[in-house]
Amino acid sequence: MFENIAPQKIDLRQWSTQFRLLEDTDIKQFKYYGNDEWGVYLSPPATFMVYGARELKKLKFDNSLSALRLWGFAFNESERLFRARQSGKHIVAAMGDLGTVPVITMSFPECVPFYPDCTWWTPFFNESTVLLDKASELGTPEGSCFVRSTLAAFHKMAYFPKPDILFASTGASCDDYSCIMQMVEDMGYELNWLEIPYRRHRKDYHVEERYTKTAHGFEYPERFETYLVDEYKRVWHKMKQLTGTDDTERLKQSINKNNRLRRLTHEIRELTHNANIAPYPGLEMMVIEFGNLYGYADIDEWLNILSMVKETILGRIEKGLGVLRPDAIPLAWVTPTADPLLLNIVEDLGGRVVATEYVINQALVEIDEEIDPFVALARSFMDASMIGSTEERIRNITTGVDSGKVAGVIISNMLGCSHCAMETRLIEEKLKRVPVLAIDVPGPLGITEQLRTRIAAFLEMLR
Amino acid sequence: MVLGLDVGSSYTKGVVFDGGINSKIVFKTSFKPRQAIERALHELKGYDTVVATGFGRELVVSAGKMITEISAFARGALFFESSIRTVIDIGGQDSKIIKVKDGRVDRFIMNDRCAAGTGNFIEKIAQALGLTLAEFGELAVQADRAEIVDSLCVVMAETEILSLVGEGKRIEDIVAGVCDALVRRIDGIGSQIGIEEPILFCGGGALNPGLVKSMRRIFKKVIIPEDAQFVGAIGAALSI
């Protein structure tokens, strides 16, 4: 469907018109949790304005069926979680861990993992600032990161059902989020903390011990791996208590399924970033990268969607078609932007994202299926950007710069975000070989003409 | 001939350009950019095409081309002096620091989020002291020893200045201190990209003799072009 329509980015009104071309049978074939009765999720993006996501009116979306499926599924997550609760599934909150706890929890029958921290996007889709206002009332004022929305969401309990079990990482994790989770604990929620060790380099220690390397080549002491294995086994034990099951074969199956997801995401990224003309927009690509963490609470359907996305991309590449102009300026994007509109703006002004460092790169690394599954999980997580030094993070970015495929770097600097405050300037300093634009991402409804001018001037400079 | 039109937030500037300035116009935008654009298009004559820049550039529907202020100021500045390494524009509502290299923009930074470091800072302080902008500039150059004004926030600076007035300090020294504070702020912002000399100082701020004196006190090689307020408009015209 829609194969004969030229690829482009379209707004809500255009999507609503195009949606009429679909037959009922087309719409009903896509379902979450495989449920025919209430699992149908395909709808024009304008539908989600009814649920309060009124800022969607500012955005433009890819006009393929795969993108329609992707957006319908991503925006349907809240409904999906409440349906999961109604149908007797266990709801598992995996916070701040970025990619490993969901792999473990998916090993247990009828368990649905999700990331409450992802609520930080909600105020940028909703016209209302109710989440941020409530977060301020609860003690996290404007000076804090947008992840404070999560605190308000836990208070309101309208954005996701009350989880059956909550895991939250601490240690080498995001400070702002960690602070929020402590406040959630103070509200009376029972949190299961798991500690993430900071990935120290050999030179940081003056003791003799065994070191090893991650898939991305980052060095770390082996005992950190042992430590993480123990932490993951604690998660396993808690899940065993919750579900009454204990089958490590299922963990291997979960790793296999998550590896399929990681491979597919990696392939889509490679195809999109290396195509002559951008076959898929940057905003949809960001949604795809984040889906890699937990399959948006239904990994099977997410895998189906990504297969369709890959087909769309391959088809467009084969025909030499794309959604952006052929001479769009190739950029690397560092740190995910809380406001999705920024990605649209950069593309509208002539930019194209061909490399990303969204602090979730570890979720792109395949988990070793030949070794003990807990060791494999720990080893894959040691690649996480968040738990290493800024220099190591910069290494991820400079790969794209050195290959010559990146003309400039945009860093979204989140106001109130503790690691952004420290890292943005450091990254700018270290990336002297390539032009860098650091954008202070304003609060919801805060994108100004001045900000557009700064982005436009940066792109003019690169052109 | 090309009309370069710089629709700024405070002033609208237009030049009809054919390798040199044929005619020019400048007047307050007064929060009515559409009317300002109409006026410039109507009053300036003899042009074949329009290139727009400035915050109101997208409102110039008849423009054959649009460019950002950053590109426009860099081109305009290089037209006046090809040896410059940095362009500093102090406008009414924002300021820009642009490093140029090999005839192109190398890096830039803008201060557009508060009055500190913009012409608005001077305007508000002049208002508080009951001075016109012209009087403010003339007094500043008569200073013997500029007072130190630490506050960069316009609200705080007003309080600090009131204290200096209360202490009986000379008004000439106080306003020179205000000019120094603004230039120090520019220097601070510019340190993020590294200001290199020679500097071309332009925009409405370059018409203020007090600010020019402060710029020359803090930096060694500062060039003030003859048509300092028209650098953006000229750069727009040159980009055709």
Short description:
By secondary structure, chain A is an alpha/beta fold. Chain A has helices spanning 12-19, 24-28, 47-50, 65-75, 77-86, 101-105, 122-125, 130-137, 149-156, 175-186, 222-243, 248-274, 282-291, 299-319, 341-348, 373-381, 390-402, 418-430, 449-462; strands at residues 9-10, 61-62, 90-95, 111-114, 165-171, 191-196, 211-213, 219-221, 329-334, 351-357, 408-414, 436-441.
* Coarse structural class of chain B: alpha/beta
Number of helices of chain A: 19
**CATH C-level of the largest domain in chain B:** Alpha Beta
Lateral arrangement of strands in the main beta sheet of chain B:
3-2-1-4-5
* Uncertain residue segments of chain B: none
Q: Give the helix level of chain A as a range of percent.
A: 40-55%
Largest interface: A-B, 11 and 15 residues
SSE diagram, text form:
The complex is a heterodimer of chains A (463) and B (240).
Chain A: E1 9-10, H1 12-19, H2 24-28, H3 47-50, E2 61-62, H4 65-75, H5 77-86, E3 90-95, H6 101-105, E4 111-114, H7 122-125, H8 130-137, H9 149-156, E5 165-171, H10 175-186, E6 191-196, E7 211-213, E8 219-221, H11 222-243, H12 248-274, H13 282-291, H14 299-319, E9 329-334, H15 341-348, E10 351-357, H16 373-381, H17 390-402, E11 408-414, H18 418-430, E12 436-441, H19 449-462
Parallel strand pairs in A: 3-4, 3-5, 5-6, 9-10, 9-11, 11-12
Antiparallel strand pairs in A: 1-2, 7-8
Chain B: E1 2-7, E2 11-17, E3 21-28, H1 33-43, E4 49-53, E5 65-66, H2 69-80, E6 86-90, E7 95-101, E8 104-111, H3 119-128, H4 133-141, H5 154-166, H6 171-190, E9 199-202, H7 209-218, E10 222-223, H8 231-238
Parallel strand pairs in B: 1-4, 4-5, 6-9, 9-10
Antiparallel strand pairs in B: 1-2, 2-3, 6-7, 7-8
Helix pairs in contact in B: 2-8, 3-5, 3-6, 4-6, 4-7, 6-7
